[in-house]
Amino acid sequence: MYLVVHADQRQFSLRDSASRLNGSGWTSTAVEFHRIGVEPGGLSIATARSDLVESSVTVVSAAPALVPDAEHVAEADLPVPSGKLVISGPADYASQEKFLAVRPGLYRARVSYVPAGPPEATWNEHEFGEHYRYVVELWPALSPSGVEVVRQGAAVWDG
Question: Residue 46's pLDDT is what?
Fold first, then answer.
């Protein structure tokens, strides 16, 4: 599923439709190293821009190969007990949320930060920061795991 998401406040999230995120996943370690904030009902993805950003969300049967061009890659668990995944920016109205139907259960989510040009949608040319495509790959998890940084990106990356 290809998306253009409004990453207001330099983030967007994936969550179970029955959950709400409150920002508690943004620990100092999450901000500085993981670039994803994990909460019981979902996860937030830090973006390099507070702007429209490109993303893709794909469900696969097992852990895929790493995206070769990804500068940063992190993984975490994503519970989706309702079977309905919500993808949205923090300022999105309910009518702006995107949905993806999945089999109910626990997923492992891999988030890859891939350098890209600006999205084809109208974007804010006055916003600073690099353009990335945020590639999210989900597969069924056999058991819970913690956050793992698979490939650590540069320390200064968001503008």
Answer: 96
Mark 67-106 as b/e (b = at least 16 C-beta within 10 Å).
Answer: beebbbbbbbbbbbeeeebbbbbbebeeeeebebebeeee
Tell the residue number behind the tokens 């794909």, with chain if given.
58
pLDDT digits (tens, 9 = 90+) for 147-157: 999 999 987 77
Mind listing the domains of the chain with CATH numbers? 2-151 (2.60.34.30)
Its pTM stands at 0.94
* E runs forming strands in 1-120: 2-6, 11-16, 36-39, 42-46, 52-59, 72-80, 84-88, 98-101, 105-115
pLDDT at position 124 is 67
Are 17 and 94 in contact by the 8 Å Cβ rule? The answer is no
